[in-house]
Protein 1
Amino acid sequence: MIQDSVLLASVFAVLLLAAGFAVLFAALRRSVRPAALATTRNPIRLRPMARLLNEADFQFLARQPGYRPEIARQLRLRRIHIFRSYLGYLAMDFHQLHRKLRILALYSPTDRADLSRLLLEQRLLFATQMFRVRLRLVLFRFGWKPADVSGLVDLVESLRLQVSELSAGLATQTVPATA
Amino acid sequence: MLQLPRTEMYFLTAITLLTAALAVKLFSTGLFRTYRAFTTFLVISVLRVAVMATVTLSPTRYRDFFIATESLHLILYVWIVMELYSLTFRKYDGIRTASQLAMGGALLVSLVLSFLSLSTDMAARSKPTIAILDQFMIAERGVVSTMVILILIITAFLAYYPVPLPSNLILHSAVFAIYFLSKSALILYRNLTGASADRFISLGVMGLAGLCLCIWIAGLRQAGEQTAIIVGHRWDPSEAERLIAQLKGMNSALARISRE
């Protein structure tokens, strides 16, 4: 019985590792494409997202004649939905820009351990902050104060500016590996 | 001289011929200069079978010969994997320290994880004394699992940057991942179920090796050494310092928000 469960756990671990490899090798195949540095879609304006969860709107609504709590609840849900879409774009923009900075770090002629460390640190901080915002968004549904996203929006806009300055004039070229 | 059942003999002959064919391909295409460890591994594998086929060995001597040559294979596995990725990282000065840390860290993490997982194999052997071959199979599972985790972590690092890789290297990594993962699973099964599964495991490993050799023969090409790189960017020191300062500022702002 114990041996069966060990075998089952082992099969699960092997399948998990195989899935991990499949995902990573698919990512590796994508990374060699010249599109890795191509200019992406026009950036979405992210500033309005900070206003979506403004508590003043809900207070204003509550003062209006004919106000019912369901109206505020529906508005809250709709705004959360829109905010989530913005959050998705924010994350997508960050990951694209961060990836371009990593590519630039890769092609630095000298060892940039400091740049690598800062980029990793930034990625972890962004992930932590995104988790925090998503958690607060769940709580906002029940009337809690939402998290401030202006810091994340500023970060993405600064990154966009840096990447556009640094990546001007880049192109891809195929060369033998021994070159 | 080696005495094996007919099926095993056919499998072994086929694998040896495929190994020799792959070694010839590496020499004829000049790829042996890039993949020195892999070529050494192939040559030693062929020589090993040649010795087994010509020299008469008692069962005990055969076991010792198997353990000694298989141990050499395990050392070569580590050399192959480290050589494979060192060659890639050497071309990218910008991430020299990061890649060295990644390789060292990956080796340490994979060693710890795989040797922790060996408790499963140990627990299945309840006898106070374990036969030499069983001990060796447990150690072999540890080394092969280390290779699986090592390749997984280094592949994750390569995908993170993202390092453009020649198609030969992607093929090489993928085949090794399949080979080590399957071999590790087969040895684990053997260690859990006992020596009664030896024949099944032996045929399984040989079949797997044959499949991998076929993929290598078909997939490894001289043209597969070409890689797409990015040109046109000129890093000047002041630009790099400005970027570092700006990133530091952004990270401090992010850290401050997280604390609020």
Protein 2
Amino acid sequence: MNFDLTRQQEMLRDTVRQFADSELAPRALELDERGEFPFDIVKRTGEMGLIGIMTPKEYGGTEMGHLARMVAIEEISRVYPPLGFFFQTCHLGHYSIQNWGTEEQKTKYLPSLCKGEKIICDAITEASGGSDPTTTQTTAQLDGNEFVINGRKVYITLAGVADLACILAKTDDKFNTILVEKGTPGFEIVRRENIAGFSTMPVNELAFTNCRVPKTNLIGQEGRGLGIGLTTISVIGRTGVAGIGLGIARGCYEAALKFAKERKLYGKPITELQAIQFALVDINVDIEAAKWVSYYAAWQIDQGKDLRAIGPDIARAKLVSCELANRVAPKAVQIMGAYGVSEEYHIVRRLKDALQLFPAAGTQEIMKATIGRSIMA
Amino acid sequence: MALNIVVCIKQVPDPEHFSKVSLDPVTKTISREGIPAIINPLDKNALEEGLRIKEKFSAKVAVITMGPPQARRALEEALAMGADEAFLLCDKAFAAADTLGTACALAPGIQKIGHFDLVLCGNETVDSGTGQVGPQIAQFLNIPYLTKVKEIAFDEERTLIVKRGLEQGYMRVRVKLPALLAVNKEINKPRLTTAFGIIAAAEKEIKAFDCRELGVDPNDVGISGSPTRVVETFQRVSQRRREVIYGSPEEAVKKTTERLKEFGALVQ
């Protein structure tokens, strides 16, 4: 067994870490306070080849793979989780196009998406529920060479800034994945949801009213939309969330460790108090365990393993890393006392971001159901 | 104008981990065990300057280092930053070299690469800080050199106007190529490696040369070619007296001033 990252993955980790420390850390608080989408930062990550990290080189990507992607998301989220969430979300659309799209769709969309010049959102969730997409009510009826789309989507991350939406809709009793460009008549962003965490990433409600798109906007074969959506959420969404969870946990841990080394109580650093030592050790062990569960899932995707077969491993990664982030952030608050809840110390914003990981890419309960099915079979 | 630029780089212990550095009492050298190695920061500035010249004009940038097999990692990073070629001078005979022994290997290494117009290096390293290797290489190559370089501009095709820092000011110097310039950190801010650079680096080869291939006498390099002998090493212990002065800001400033005068730190 070889647990080493490749030299390329190592160099990627180091450079993303430097990028996060030098270009994201000084702006994190201000960005969150303003709540505006950081277009300049997204463009910069496009120039660095990070947005196209798992996209084939011929379409403008760097094709470094899924483990490299997870490591990059982790390093970014260690400092600024909303940008990690951007990667998690936009990659859903990238993956659908590069895996099931036509040559024309790949050539038309992927290069500008990889550069960060264009943004894509993935729209599956509806008011009827996100965990069970078979309840989708949005319809896409065929009329000649066009789909006529009607319906609403809720909690769609990035929709407010996206140039393109990759939506799941029903055509009669079959599901289709269809691309809808911004500005298409009948497609509108209804409102921005007011939610805690990932404050710079807009989450919106979408409405489709007799929205006509060419039939050539269909991704993959007709009627395969549900499979495309579910595979994408598993392979991209859950591994992405795992990376963000690891990053949030590491960010909180490093901040708490630094604080504990500097903070003096009873004339000595609080790291000399066993209660603090044990808390930091617990976090440290927790992170290491979740890291390897998560890296293993991403590594298996890179090895070309059967995606259905490794579904439970991917679910484990999402489950443990999401729990990890939500365990570590409050522990960091406890170690840091009142400083922990001060915005200046960067734990509170991470805690709010961590909460968003619970529903993202499938709830924890759906993860357990997925793992449960595999062990009870 | 097509320039051939050679950048000399060195792997050094990461200054972030200097608190873990210890001195080996037997060998009297720095123990680097468990300390990650990075490209010497000023050498990165040198590489960045080479890459900027390449982007402005037509140039080829080669990087060269002397070191053990793991020094290859520094070259891989330099290739990922954008260097075109990389050369590793690796031989047991090169080990434990002082600055002269290092320059004795690097100079023929640079000549081995082929034609060169400009040699760039960091002004000094964070682990030794002598600032001698660059000038020594230039002496061996019989080319002019300038140290503490903070700006490079082209005057004519093969003439540079170089701004070099002085203790209280700067000096502008016109220098004809070929030349060696040892840069300081004010010259630029090194770029971050990109994923594009990392995948491009995988296509580039790192060529390794040993002592024989360089045509160098083993007695001229490594410990044999190094006149420096370390007689003693010791860890400097810095001890400061600390005193806390209480009171209102006005009172505290007054008391502080009085105390500083008592110590002779303030004259008036």
